[in-house]
Backbone:
C-alpha cells in the first residue's frame, strides 16, 4: 500500500506556479547573501587570537624569554598591531567600495547566475586562503593584505546580483516589506559567522576562515544549479513595477503629477501569482529582445539615484562605526566586561532587523521611501545623543536604547540598499528596461561603502579626544543624510498633497 503524498509536497502543489518560484528566489538569494556575511565575520573574531594576552598564559614554554607577545602571530605581535588590524579592515573595505562601482556594470552584461555563483566560489577561495596562512605558517603582512583586497573585490558580486534577482521577481506593491524581512540575512550571516569562527579560534584559527570559505563556495554551486534570474525564463508572469493608470493608487502617492519619482503600484509581489501566470507562460521573453544594459552615467541620471547614494554614504558611516566600535565603547564608558559588551552589541543588530522591517512596511503603505528614511534619521539624531548620555544607566536602559538606536540607524540603511535600489533600477523613466538593477544597486551601495570605510577611520581618529566627539560626528552624519533627501521628500509630499486634492475634487469610481 502506498503512503499518502507528503504534506510538504501537497502544500507545494497547492501553491501557484509563480509563488513557488518567487519563494525559491527569496530563499536562495537569502542563503547566498547570508553566506557572504558569514565569510566576512571571521576576521573580527580571530583578531583576538592573532594578538592575545600572552602574559595570562605564563612564560614562553620554548625558551626563558619574558616576552609578553610570545604567543602572538607575527606580524601582528608588535606594538603596532592595532594599526595592522586597521590595515586589514581598510584593505577589504576600500577594495569593496571601489569594486562595487565596477561590479554593477559587469552584472548588467553577464548572466546573473554565472556572475553570482562565480563570485561566491572566488570569495570562498580567498576566505580560505587567509586561513591557510595559519597552516602554511605565513608571517608576512603583504600576503594577508593582498588576500583581503582580492576578497573585497570579489565580494562585490553579491549585493547587486541578489537585489537584481529579487527586483526581477517582485513588483513594487509590497517590495519594502518583503525586502525588509529578506534583508535580515545580514544579521543572520554575522551571527552564524561568529559562531562558526568561534569553534576553532582558540585551537586552529585557520579553520575559522576555511570552513566559512567552503560554505560560501558550496552555496554558490547550489545557486548555479537552481537560481532563476527572470520570471519569463520559466514561463511565469513578470511583476508589475508601475501602474498604467493614473487614477488608481494604493499608497497615497500620485502619478498624475507626472512625477517619475512618485510612482507606486497596486500590485503586491504575490498578488498576481494565480491570476496572470497563464497569460505569459506561453510567451517567454526571447534573449534577442532584451534591451541593452544601461551605462554608468545613464544610471546616475535616473531621478533619485544621486540623492539616495549620498544619503547612504552618511547612513552607512554611522552604521559601520557602531559595528566596529560599539563593543569597545560599551567597555570603556559603561564599564561592562568584554563578554557582556559583545552580547549587548548584538542588540544593535536586533534593532536593525526590526527597523528594516518597520521601514519597509511604512514605506509600502505610504509610498514614500525618502520620507520614511528622513523621519527615521531625524529621530535617530536625538536618540544617539540620549544613548551617549543616559544609555549607560543600567543594563535595562542599555538594552532598550541599543534596540531603538539600531532600528533608527539601520532602518533607512536597509530600506535604501534593498527596496529603494530595486525601485530605482526599475524606474519608469527607463520605459520598461529593467537592465539597470545591478548598476543602480552597485552605485548606491558603492557610495555607501565609502562611508563604511570612513566611519571607523574617523572614529579611531576622534575617539582619543573623547567619546562625546565621536557621537557628535555620528549625529552630524545623520543630519547630513537627512538633508540630502530633502528634494525627494518635497516631491513625495507634493504628490500626496495633489492626491488629496483630487480625492476632494473628484468622485472615485
Residues:
Amino acid at each position: 500500500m502506498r503512503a499518502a503524498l507528503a504534506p510538504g509536497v501537497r502544500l507545494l502543489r497547492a501553491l501557484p506556479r509563480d509563488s513557488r518560484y518567487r519563494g525559491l528566489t527569496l530563499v536562495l538569494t537569502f542563503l547566498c547573501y547570508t553566506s557572504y556575511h558569514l565569510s566576512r565575520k571571521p576576521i573580527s573574531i580571530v583578531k583576538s587570537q592573532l594578538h592575545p594576552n600572552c602574559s595570562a598564559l605564563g612564560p614562553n614554554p620554548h625558551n626563558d624569554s619574558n616576552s609578553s607577545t610570545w604567543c602572538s602571530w607575527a606580524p601582528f605581535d608588535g606594538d603596532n598591531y592595532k594599526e595592522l588590524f586597521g590595515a586589514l579592515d581598510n584593505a577589504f573595505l576600500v577594495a569593496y567600495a571601489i569594486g562595487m562601482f565596477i561590479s554593477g556594470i559587469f552584472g548588467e552584461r553577464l548572466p546573473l547566475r554565472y556572475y553570482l555563483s562565480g563570485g561566491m566560489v572566488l570569495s570562498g577561495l580567498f576566505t580560505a586562503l587567509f586561513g591557510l596562512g595559519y597552516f602554511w605558517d605565513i608571517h608576512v603582512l603583504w600576503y594577508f593584505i593582498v588576500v583581503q583586497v582580492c576578497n573585497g573585490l570579489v565580494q562585490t558580486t553579491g549585493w547587486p546580483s541578489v537585489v537584481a534577482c529579487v527586483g526581477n521577481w517582485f513588483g513594487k506593491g509590497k517590495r519594502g516589506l518583503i525586502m525588509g524581512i529578506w534583508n535580515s540575512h545580514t544579521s543572520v550571516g554575522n551571527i552564524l559567522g561568529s559562531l562558526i569562527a568561534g569553534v576553532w579560534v582558540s585551537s586552529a584559527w585557520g579553520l575559522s576562515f576555511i570552513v566559512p570559505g567552503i560554505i560560501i563556495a558550496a552555496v554558490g554551486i547550489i545557486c548555479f544549479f537552481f537560481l532563476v534570474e527572470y520570471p519569463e525564463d520559466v514561463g511565469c508572469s513578470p511583476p508589475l513595477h508601475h501602474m498604467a493608470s493614473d487614477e488608481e493608487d494604493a499608497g497615497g502617492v500620485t502619478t498624475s503629477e507626472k512625477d517619475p519619482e512618485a510612482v507606486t503600484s497596486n500590485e503586491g509581489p504575490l498578488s498576481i501569482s494565480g491570476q496572470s501566470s497563464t497569460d505569459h507562460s506561453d510567451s517567454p521573453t526571447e534573449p534577442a529582445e532584451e534591451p541593452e544594459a544601461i551605462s554608468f552615467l545613464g544610471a546616475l541620471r535616473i531621478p533619485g539615484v544621486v540623492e539616495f547614494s549620498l544619503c547612504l554614504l552618511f547612513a552607512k558611516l554611522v552604521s559601520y562605526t557602531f559595528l566596529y566600535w560599539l563593543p569597545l565603547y560599551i567597555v570603556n564608558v559603561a564599564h561592562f566586561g568584554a563578554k557582556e559588551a559583545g552580547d549587548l552589541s548584538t542588540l544593535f543588530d536586533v534593532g536593525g532587523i526590526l527597523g528594516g522591517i518597520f521601514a519597509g512596511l511604512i514605506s509600502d503603505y505610504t509610498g514614500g521611501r525618502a520620507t520614511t528614511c528622513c523621519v527615521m534619521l531625524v529621530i535617530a539624531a536625538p536618540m544617539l545623543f540620549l544613548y551617549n548620555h543616559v544609555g549607560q544607566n543600567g543594563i535595562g536602559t542599555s538594552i532598550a536604547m541599543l534596540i531603538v538606536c539600531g532600528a533608527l540607524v539601520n532602518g533607512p540603511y536597509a530600506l535604501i540598499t534593498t527596496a529603494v535600489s530595486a525601485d530605482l533600477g526599475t524606474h519608469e523613466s527607463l520605459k520598461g528596461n529593467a537592465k539597470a538593477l545591478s548598476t543602480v544597486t552597485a552605485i548606491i551601495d558603492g557610495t555607501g561603502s565609502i562611508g563604511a570605510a570612513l566611519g571607523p577611520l574617523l572614529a579611531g581618529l576622534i575617539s582619543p579626544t573623547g567619546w562625546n566627539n565621536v557621537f557628535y560626528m555620528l549625529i552630524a552624519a545623520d543630519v547630513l543624510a537627512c538633508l540630502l533627501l530633502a528634494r525627494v521628500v518635497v516631491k513625495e509630499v507634493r504628490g500626496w498633497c495633489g492626491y488629496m486634492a483630487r480625492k476632494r475634487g473628484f468622485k472615485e469610481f
User: Anything to note?
Assistant: Residues 203 and 388 are 38 Å apart (CA to CA).
